[in-house]
Amino acid sequence: MYDEFNKLLEEAKNGDVTSLEQILLDLHPLIISSIKRYYYRVDLFDDLIQDGRIVILECINNYDHSKGVYFLGYVKTMLRYLYINKHKTVATLSLNKKIGNDEEDELIDLLESKDDGLLERIIKYENNQVIRQAILRLPMRQRQVIISFFCEGLTISQISQRYNIAYRTVVNVKTAALKTLRRSLALLDNKKK
């Protein structure tokens, strides 16, 4: 299999379009799994796939077999960096952004409300978004259990029946997922400080 893939890679480097298309087709599942693992945004899914294909094309052009690195390992690493960096550079709007001609005012100064809880609601919304993102980064089984338990209100027994897994396994998966979520949220908290 590797010999066949290396042959495709060599042909693609020499300009064979059919080999290039075959490599992109073969690596499409890797692009999808990288998106889901490192930067899952449904609204940007098609664009993220295209970005992944561009990275693979760049990898084909830049790959140097003499460096002793396997091509697939190189591609996986480059896709991981692509999607992690996209996650880091998501544009955020700060309420402390300077506005106006003289830039003396901040965006937060424009927020007027008779409801004193507006700022709390904004913070709660941002926290919910952070929690959603942390849940989406969980492995599939952990995500299913957490959503079933906390969002759908199912019991451990019901989750066990739904996914056809042992009761104790559901408990262990839930415990592991909560531990991962706590760790993720603690890391984000430390970054904010």
Notes on the protein architecture:
It is built from nine helices and two strands. With 193 residues, the chain is mainly alpha-helical. The protein folds into two domains: 2-88; 119-192, Orthogonal Bundle (Arc Repressor Mutant, subunit A), CATH 1.10.10. It has a two-stranded antiparallel sheet. Helix 3 (28-38) packs across helix 4. The longest helix has 26 residues, at 167-192. It is flat and about 65 Å long. It starts with a helix and ends with a helix. The model has no long low-confidence stretch (mean pLDDT 80).
Question: What does the secondary structure layout of this molecule look like, with pairings?
Answer:
Elements: H1 2-13, H2 17-26, H3 28-38, H4 45-62, H5 71-88, E1 98-99, E2 105-106, H6 118-136, H7 140-151, H8 156-163, H9 167-192
Antiparallel strand pairs: 1-2
Helix pairs in contact: 1-2, 3-4, 3-5, 4-5, 7-9, 8-9
